[in-house]
Amino acid sequence: MLMFRSNLPASTTPRSFALVLSAVFLLSTLAFAPLTGAQDALPGTYGLKIYSVNSITYPFVQVYFRSFDQNMLPLVNLNERNIGLMVKGRSYDPMKRQYFVQSLRQRQEAARTVIILDASKSMQGLPFEAALRASARFIDSKRPQDEVAILAIRDTKEGFETVSSFERDPGALARRMADVRCDGKRTRLFDTIAAGLQACGAASQGSVSPGSSSIIVSNSIVVFSDGRDEGSAVSREELNTRISSLPIPLPIYSLAYSKVSQKWFKNLESLSKNSFGKYYLIAESFDKMQRTVEEIQNIIQSDYVLTFRAYVPIDGAEHAFKVGVEYPAGSGKYKYESAKFEALEPPPDPRLLQKIDELRFNLPDTPSGSPFLERVATQPQ
Predict the structure, then answer these.
(1) In the chain, which stretches have pLDDT less than 70?
(2) Please, how many CA atoms are within 13 Å of residue 228, restricted to the half-sphere of its CB?
(3) What are phi and psi of 341, to 5 degrees?
């Protein structure tokens, strides 16, 4: 487990202390905003979704958000120059340096993914071998702190076999995956995906141990299947209803492939689009799988974290704010997403208070005591 860093030198810059900022999550609970409608974006458009807000180190607030273009791929190189911030309707002045943006890729918070392997007989041979190789590639390309669980659709009472619970060690995951047999007679796809959703939800609500790498900030599901379902207790419609009602974002990335028939691919497409995920048509181009999982890893690791200093007095209430993205920088066109933070006094934990002091050093109060734009009033002639 990574150790906390403290006593930053005076030369430390906001971009050089990602470990410190990620450590502020000890004792925290995450507040998530649901993600909807992401794949309705028209060509040439882009958007963002806030999926976590944490103010345990108030007055310093951290906002986790995911960006996407018309192809559901992340926007690159976002920074303070094309990120706008509004609190209670007033715009922060970026020149006052009261907020900064970091990529999750360079931080220590972890992501969790459930891999679902269709191990029914219809996938035997080259399709299943390609799925195993792609799963191994996905595991190899994860960050050390990220965790992966593996479910195989097989003929068990539940309709699936738990190959591995959430695990960080790539070697352990590979050894367990090597034992999976592709011999299932029925494909209870929807039941297995429902189990993956439940596993992610249970993991997200677990206790947080001291150490930034133990903080889970996102969950995803990657499905390798032809989309056929036989005998699941839950229907596709019921599963989509569960997905829509989730209080946290849980995207499903589907790799639809088959050497027999494509008529069930629509099941995977429906689930991916409804969950803010992405649908990949592999068909019989099995060699595309490894490039596809690399893209999925890139999406997962390309979230952004906005840290800002709030100037709302501690009152125990929720306060509205907006994050906007101007893309490309200098275009003058912003897309905004709304959320809320709580103005709460931090718990009296010495480690937590030390992190607040470090944040205060890197985001000092403005001389004017206000982070907002100062507009010069015009006098009528």
Answers:
(1) 1-44, 203-214, 376-381
(2) 19
(3) -125, 160
Third-level CATH fold of 110-301: Rossmann fold (3.40.50)
For residues 113 and 165, the answer to whether their CB atoms sit within 8 Å is no
pTM of model > 0.90: no
pLDDT at 47: 86
pLDDT of residue 9: 36
Letter for the amino acid at 35?
A: L
Residues 344-367 have pLDDT tens digits of 999 988 988 998 999 999 999 998
Q: Which of 39, 102, 76 is nearest to 327 (CA)?
A: 76
For residue 169, the tally of other CB atoms under 10 A from its CB is 13
For the chain, which residues make up each domain, given as ranges? 14-104+303-362, 110-301
Strands 90-91 and 83-87, how do they pair?
Answer: antiparallel
Ramachandran quadrant class, 146 (left: phi over 0; alpha: psi -120 to 50; beta: rest) = beta
The fold adopted by the segment(s) 14-104+303-362 is Immunoglobulin-like (2.60.40)
pLDDT for res 19: 35
| DSSP letter string, 210-268 | SSGGG-EEEEEEEEEE-----S-SS-HHHHHHHHHH-SS---EEEEEE-SS--TTHHHH
Torsion of CA 290, 295, 300, 302, to 10 degrees: 140
Contact at 8 Å (CB) between 25 and 215?
A: yes
Residue with tokens 């120059």: 81
Instruction: For residue 90, give the H/E element and its range.
Output: strand 90-91
**Cβ partners under 8 Å of residue 97, min gap 6:** 80, 363
Q: For residue 340, which phi and psi values (nearest 5 degrees)?
A: -140, 150
Residue 20's pLDDT is: 35
Q: Are the CB atoms for 293 and 307 separated by under 8 Å?
A: no
Please compute Rg for the chain using Cα positions. 22
C-alpha distance from residue 115 to each of 91, 129, 199, 237, 255 (Å): 42, 15, 11, 22, 11
d(CA 260, CA 353): 60
Q: Is 351 helix (H, G, I), strand (E, B) or coil?
A: helix
